[in-house]
Amino acid sequence: MNNFKERLLSKDYGKTIRNLVIAMAFVAIVSVLFIVFFAIPELRTANTYCLETAIIYEPSRLVEVTSAILGLCAIILFTLYWIAFSIYLYKKAKDADIIPILWLFLALYMNIFALFAFLIVRSIIREKCPECQRYVKKSDIYCKYCGKELKIKCHECGEYAEKGAEYCPKCGNDLELR
Ligand SMILES: [Zn+2]
Ligand SMILES: [Zn+2]
Predict the structure, then answer these.
(1) pLDDT tens digits, residue range 150-172?
(2) How many CB atoms lie within 10 A of CB 156?
(3) What is the pLDDT of residues 133-146, one digit of tens each?
(4) 99-120 pLDDT tens trace
(5) Distance between CA 144 and CA 96 in Å, rounded?
(6) Strand runs labelled E in 95-150
(7) In angstroms, what is the span from residue 140 Cα to ligand 1's centroid?
(8) How close is the Cα of 84 to the center of ligand 2, in Å?
(9) How far apart are the first and last CA of the chain?
(10) Alpha-carbon distance 30 to 20, whole Å?
(11) Can you say how many angstroms the Cα of residue 151 is from the centroid of all Cα atoms in its chain?
(12) Distance 172 CA to ligand 2 centre (A)
């Protein structure tokens, strides 16, 4: 079970999602072409014929079977896309260490809107370590993954200041002189 979970999570979902979107676009184009060039012309001919003879229109075998196949493809692709997208967001939340299971459910519930919300939340509470590029808490003094110092220590009062700060926010000591 654990092995299965690991394998499930090791996939590159960005790529899977891209391929599924291309496949869905393809099915959509085929469906439109089918409707314009087969279904509508058939319905038109049948309509005239049915009006004259008072027979109820029934789609031909071709229209019936093709509609069923296209519909089934669309449903399967869309379901796979929805699941892949949710796992993709789960992985993103796991990398940023922000309650991945919550984001999995939010993605299952509202798909791409959950991603927008996630990106906003992540930009508020996390930042990238300049050394290893992984997400760390904004308040962290050292990167928990690679040990890189993320803040500068004031030698006067011992307070930590943001990287790039010129003066200590607590005692006003010039941080450049050290
Ligand atoms: Zn790091
Ligand atoms: Zn200070």
Answers:
(1) 998 898 898 898 888 899 989 99
(2) 14
(3) 999 998 899 999 99
(4) 999 999 999 999 999 999 999 9
(5) 12
(6) 126-128, 135-137
(7) 11
(8) 49
(9) 54
(10) 15
(11) 32
(12) 6
